[in-house]
Amino acid sequence: MDFPLTPQEWCIFDAEDFEQAEVRDPGNLGMELLAQARTTGRIQDHFRVILGGRQQLTAETGLSSIIGGDKFNAYKLRFQYWPRDISIRRNSVTSNWKGVYELLSERNAVVVDNDDTTIPTEDILKEMDQMAKTNGDTASVRWMVAIGHDKRMRLDLVALPASEAVISSKPILMR
């Protein structure tokens, strides 16, 4: 990753602006890493990743790869977000987990087939309800900031075949 060579190229914000800061020049898509520093220049343990831009992000994943079941083999789960609406947690490089069922119910994701035809959300939710009765869990997704092979920051969508509650819960300690 390329860093500015001289301190004059770094932008310094007041502490009050840390929580409300926005990407300075997002263009189509922008991402910045903010760190809090003391007046001595020593970096503290607080950082934020902020996103911005004029271009909507689209991500897709095979529905059967995270939910299972042969009936979903021909379907893809599609997400579209404005970068400013993706909230990366403070002192973390990920967003909170969000259940796929919830995302579909809120119309924050759609299911499409291989021909890009949108499948009615109600049909998918009914199938997921039936699966939940027998399997228990569904699936969850979250956004993650990473550094790619080209040494540039990137945003990945991570999906797991478990409910948000299961993933976010504290593990039970065994004796």
Walk me through what this model shows.
By secondary structure, this protein is α+β, with helices and mostly antiparallel strands. It has two domains: 7-52, no CATH class; 57-164. The protein has four helices and nine strands; from the N terminus they run E-E-E-H-E-E-H-E-E-H-E-E-H. Strand 6 and strand 7 (118-119) form a beta hairpin. The model is unreliable at 1-6 (pLDDT under 50).
Spatial strand arrangement across the major sheet: 3-4-6-7
| Number of separate structural domains | 2
Main beta-sheet strand count, sense and barrel state: 4 strands, antiparallel
Q: Strand share of the residues? A: 25-35%
Instruction: Summarize model confidence as the mean pLDDT.
Output: 84
pLDDT below 50 for ≥5 consecutive residues: which ranges?
Answer: 1-6
The 3D shape can be described as elongated
Task: Specify the structural class.
Answer: alpha+beta
Helix content: 10-25%
| Gyration radius, in Å | 20 Å
Strands, count: 9
Cα-to-Cα separation, first versus last residue: 45 Å
Number of helices: 4
Q: What series of H and E elements makes up the topology?
A: EEEHEEHEEHEEH
Give a short synopsis of this structure.
Helix content is 18%, strand content 32%. With 175 residues, it is an alpha+beta fold. The strands form 3 sheets. Strands 3-4-6-7 form a 4-stranded antiparallel sheet. A 3-stranded antiparallel sheet has the order 5-8-9. A two-stranded antiparallel ribbon has the order 1-2.
